[in-house]
């Protein structure tokens, strides 16, 4: 992961605070961020807003490295934020890193 020296990294939780195949929400005035954990303990962060109709991705079902929006079943790739075909759209991604089990987010 390419990390810029001036990026403000914020500690948000421990990896174990995020359920496997689940999420945790980081609230912020500019829109909440959904932080996801795969079965392989890979962590991803997306704006908690489906590109289709704005559904809360944090309430979706995580499978592999995708999340299914709870409103209309769009599948969103956690690594890129891209909707999987045939759907089109993209959820904003946020840089995330894990250091010694602690999750850091760059907003």
UniProtKB/TrEMBL annotation:
Protein name, as recorded: Nitrite reductase small subunit NirD
Database matches in SUPFAM superfamilies: ISP domain (SSF50022)
NCBIfam families, alphabetized: nirD_assim_sml
Metal-binding as UniProt keyword: yes
Xref: Pfam families: Rieske
The keyword Metal-binding is annotated on this UniProt entry: yes
Recorded name of the encoding gene: nirD
InterPro entries: Rieske-like_NirD, Rieske_2Fe-2S, Rieske_2Fe-2S_sf
PANTHER family associated with the record: 3-PHENYLPROPIONATE_CINNAMIC ACID DIOXYGENASE FERREDOXIN SUBUNIT, FERREDOXIN-RELATED
Domain Rieske stretches: 10-105
UniProt keyword terms in alphabetical order: 2Fe-2S, Iron, Iron-sulfur, Metal-binding, Nitrate assimilation, Oxidoreductase
């Amino acid at each position: 992961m390419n990390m810029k020296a001036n990026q403000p990294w914020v500690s948000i939780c421990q990896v174990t605070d995020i359920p496997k195949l689940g999420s945790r929400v980081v609230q912020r005035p500019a829109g909440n961020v959904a932080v996801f954990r795969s079965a392989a303990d890979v962590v991803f962060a997306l704006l908690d807003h489906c590109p289709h109709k704005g559904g809360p991705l944090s309430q979706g079902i995580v499978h592999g490295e995708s999340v299914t929006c709870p409103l209309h079943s769009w599948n969103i790739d956690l690594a890129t934020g891209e909707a999987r075909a045939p759907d089109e759209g993209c959820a904003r991604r946020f840089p995330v890193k894990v250091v010694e089990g602690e999750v850091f987010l760059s907003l």
